[in-house]
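Technical note accompanying the year-one report. For the benefit of new consortium partners, we illustrate the data format agreed upon in the data management plan: each record pairs a sequence with a structure-token string. No post-processing was applied to the example shown here.
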Amino acid sequence: MRLFGCLSAVLMLGLSPGAIAADQITVGNAKVIVRTVTGAFEGEMRQLQLLDDVYHNELIETEVESATQLLFLDETTLTLGPESRVVLDKFIYDPDPSKASFVMTATQGVFRFASGKLPKGAYQINTPAATIGIRGTSLEIAVLPASPEHGQPVAVDVRLESGEAFLTTEKGELIHLDSNRPWARLLVAP
């Protein structure tokens, strides 16, 4: 009876049930929550709890002394340390490799990223200083602020743990990270 009532309310508002579901596409869930972790989707804020779903285009933030680990549908893992902020821009898990895609934007804090089952070229991590393409990779990223008062990032550190990463700076410079060069610091253009 409740389901019928909800469906009737949706239809009376002129929305189809599919329109609501299409707006909130699940891309993974929170496997670890330490203290305060929030999600923001289309202006709606929520405090994430253990095993909560996370969504396409959701902003995930951790507070002081907080952290989270997200597990995506393809088994990619993303760990956010304290005072970190990331947007889950795009995630398409499709058996057709040409359609698969994972795009996120890391704007503040520290992150550990380990790619999952998507094709190697499907991953893209945007930062204030560079876009990172990865190949079967595990890496750490730190978006470093100028000072706690200003909050604007001044540098991005990338440390490769395994695989390869290709960093394209805002100026178009390509930096290849591998076992011979596992680390790079990129300055954010003023």
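Partners are asked to follow this layout when depositing records. The two ends are 58 Å apart (CA to CA).
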